[in-house]
Each structure stands twice: as structure tokens, then as C-alpha cells.
């Protein structure tokens, strides 16, 4: 059975004091929920966040990692380093990493492999650009993103994969995929995984939707059968909004 997940990707926002304040507010307001709740603060605030959340059900996850074990990669963080401070899950493939930091499918495949070798769960992000959707090429783009980075994995590795479909045109723009567009793509993703593996793998993987999810649209998006939760950017930085989105599951 796949899990419901609501994750907040805080991107490059909040210093340590702000991180702790937001987490304390979130903890105090956290509703009873069947969803797994995750937050991804910046690297420098991961340890502080873990301490702040001791005893809480909120999981602290990382936004990125490097594929190498260690070495001369100035400014980078390895999977082993994340595990060492108590991280269990890492986001890989966010469209901002692809767009601003040149992360290709090939690099992402290496990152996924390194994460899994270190027993990290991977929240793998992917999604088409506006031109792809306009030209009707969005299904092909999504299929090739999945194939290039993930389809060399063994079937058993899929137990440690969470997918986050984030159409680039909906990220931070206020423009959301309609619930129907999200459902259509999520069903396509499951079909693609069934073809590459089998129906059991496809049915058991959680597929989150990300891109301008807000308290006002979350209920409708989450009500779709193939949408298992959300990866939330801007709205996860405001405790009341994030809590409202968690309640929408
Ligand atoms: O990129 C996102 C989450 O990873 C989505 O960001 P917004 O919710 O701000 O559109």
C-alpha cells in the first residue's frame, strides 16, 4: 500500500532562528493525519531542525546531495554525510537543480544510485516545461525523465522511491495544473511504470503533485485517485497554510 505524503520544500529560505520558529509553530498546530509529513530545510539547518523536532512525527529531509562518496567537490554534501546526521530521505531532480545547476538525467541517475546505496529514500522530482505542454509533448518528456534516471533500478529499489510530478510551469507561478491534468499525468506515470516493471511496483509508489499547491486548491487535487499527496514550496513556509494543506489529505 502506498503512503500519503505532504512535504514542504523550503528551498533557500529561512535562517536557523526562522527555521526553529516555523517548526515549533508547525509542531504545535500539526493535525492528526494519515499523511507522512516532511520538511526540507536548507543543509545548514538540517541538524537544528532534527533537534527541534525530536519526538515529533514530522520528518526532516534534505533538498539535494552529491553522487560522490567524498573528495574534492567544494561546496557539496554526500549521501553518507546526510545519513550520518540522521536524514532518511533526500529530494533529487528538482527542476530548479536541473535549470540552474545543470543537473542532467545522467547526473540524476548517479545521484539516485548513490542515495539508494546509502539507504536513503529518494523523492525524485520531474515534470515538463511550458513549451512541452503547449506542444503536446509533455507525456514523452515525463516518460524520458523517468526512464533515463530511474528505469535501470531493480524492482526492489522502488520500495525506496517517492515520485513528485512538478510541472515546471506551475512552480512558484500561482498557476496550478488542474486536478484533471494532475490526475491524467499521474495515471500516465503509473502506466509507464507498469510497462517498465509491473502493476505492483506502479501501485505501490507514492506519486506527489507539486506546483502552486495552496490551501484553496489542495482538497481538489488530493481527491484524485492517483495523487498521493503534495510537494509544497511557497505555502509550506507559512505554518497555517501548510497545516491547512496537510488537513486536505
Ligand atoms: O517547487 C515546488 C516544490 O518543490 C513547488 O513550489 P510552489 O509550491 O512554490 O509552486
UniProtKB/TrEMBL annotation:
GO cellular component labels: cytosol
Catalytic activity reported: D-glyceraldehyde 3-phosphate = dihydroxyacetone phosphate
Keywords: Cytoplasm, Gluconeogenesis, Glycolysis, Isomerase
GO terms under biological process: gluconeogenesis; glyceraldehyde-3-phosphate biosynthetic process; glycerol catabolic process; glycolytic process
Binding site for substrate: 9-11, 172, 212, 233-234
Molecular function GO labels: triose-phosphate isomerase activity
SUPFAM superfamilies tied to this protein: Triosephosphate isomerase (TIM)
Subcellular location, record wording: Cytoplasm
InterPro entries: Aldolase_TIM, TIM_sf, TrioseP_Isoase_bac/euk, Triosephosphate_isomerase, Triosephosphate_isomerase_AS
Pfam families per UniProt: TIM
Documented EC number(s): 5.3.1.1
PANTHER family membership: TRIOSEPHOSPHATE ISOMERASE
Name of the featured protein: Triosephosphate isomerase
Protein's organism: Saonia flava
Biological classification of the source: Bacteria, Pseudomonadati, Bacteroidota, Flavobacteriia, Flavobacteriales
Amino acid at each position: 500500500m502506498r503512503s500519503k505524503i505532504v512535504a514542504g520544500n523550503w528551498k533557500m529560505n529561512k535562517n536557523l532562528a526562522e527555521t526553529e520558529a516555523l517548526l515549533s509553530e508547525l509542531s504545535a498546530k500539526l493535525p492528526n493525519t494519515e499523511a507522512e509529513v516532511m520538511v526540507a530545510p536548507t543543509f545548514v539547518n538540517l541538524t537544528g531542525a532534527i533537534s527541534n523536532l525530536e519526538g515529533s512525527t514530522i520528518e526532516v529531509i534534505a533538498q539535494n546531495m552529491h553522487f560522490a562518496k567524498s573528495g574534492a567537490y567544494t561546496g557539496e554534501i554526500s549521501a553518507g554525510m546526510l545519513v550520518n546526521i540522521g536524514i532518511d530521505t533526500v529530494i533529487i531532480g528538482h527542476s530548479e537543480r536541473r535549470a540552474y545547476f545543470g543537473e542532467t538525467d545522467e547526473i540524476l541517475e548517479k545521484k539516485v544510485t548513490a542515495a539508494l546505496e546509502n539507504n536513503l529514500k529518494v523523492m525524485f522530482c520531474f515534470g515538463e516545461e511550458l513549451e512541452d505542454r503547449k506542444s503536446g509533448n509533455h507525456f514523452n518528456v515525463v516518460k524520458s525523465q523517468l526512464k533515463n534516471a530511474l528505469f535501470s533500478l531493480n524492482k526492489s529499489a522502488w520500495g525506496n522511491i517517492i515520485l513528485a510530478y512538478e510541472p515546471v510551469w506551475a512552480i512558484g507561478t500561482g498557476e496550478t495544473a488542474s486536478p484533471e491534468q494532475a490526475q491524467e499525468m499521474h495515471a500516465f506515470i503509473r502506466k509507464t511504470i507498469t510497462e517498465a516493471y509491473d502493476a505492483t511496483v506502479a501501485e505501490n509508489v507514492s506519486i506527489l503533485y507539486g506546483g502552486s499547491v495552496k490551501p484553496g486548491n489542495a482538497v481538489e487535487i488530493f481527491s484524485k485517485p492517483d495523487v498521493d499527496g503534495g510537494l509544497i514550496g511557497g505555502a509550506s513556509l507559512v505554518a497555517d497554510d501548510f497545516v491547512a494543506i496537510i488537513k486536505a489529505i
